[in-house]
Amino acid sequence: MIPGYARTAFLGGLLFVAASTASYAEDQSLEELAVVLNIVSRVVEPNQQIVWDQTNNRVTLPGVPVRMKLVGANLVVVLQFTLYREKSGRKLLVAQGQILVDIPNQGMSYQTTIETIPMEYGEQIYFFPLGQADSPEEARIEIQVALLPYTPETALLETSSRESE
Fold it and tell me: pLDDT tens digit string along 40-96?
């Protein structure tokens, strides 16, 4: 549980980011504000073989979350990525995760994560919902997120990606 003063500071900081994003957005068109989140999700087996791989391009606006859910036999991972832009032009990606795992002989485990990451166009960020593997003999889930500027071409990728799901 977050202590009262920490929660107040966190909420105040979040409101500051939202307010600075809103005032910055007033001077721009929707097309200038739009961005594309390129999200690649993978399940990598202990032998480093990729057994599941999915790429999604999502057009979004600052402050509008992009959500995704990964469901396995004993695992549910819900992720939300929200981009914010400060007046200075700096971009911040807020990555939130909720992980529910059924551990044999132990029961259900629930975990949440939240990270705020400064990001630039073209930069790739890796997110490991279950944590990084301690050794190469362990399977892992990895999510790679890249921020791309909005163009008509990336908008078409987003549309075709949704149709193929």
Answer: 888 888 877 888 888 888 999 999 999 999 888 888 999 999 999 988 889 999 999
Q: 118 forms bridges with which residues in the sheet?
A: 92
Q: Are 16 and 23 in contact (CB under 8 A)?
A: no
- Do residues 57 and 156 touch, judged by C-beta distance below 8 A? no
Q: What is the 3-state secondary structure (H, E, C) of 53-67?
A: EEEEEEEECCCCCEE
How many residues comprise the chain? 165
Query: Are the C-beta atoms of 112 and 97 separated by less than 8 Å?
Result: yes
Q: Give me the residue label for tokens 């919902």.
A: 129
Contact criterion met (CB below 8 Å) for 129 and 113:
yes
The letter for the amino acid at 98 is Q
Rounded to two decimals, the pTM is 0.72
Helix (H, G, I), strand (E, B) or coil at 116: strand
Residue type at position 56 = N
> How would DSSP label each residue in 87-147?
TTS-EEEEEEEEEEEEETTTEEEEEEEEEEEEE-TT-EEEE-TT---SSTTS-EEEEEEEE
> Beta strand pairing status for 35-44 and 124-127?
unpaired
DSSP, collapsed to helix, strand or coil, labels residue 16 as helix
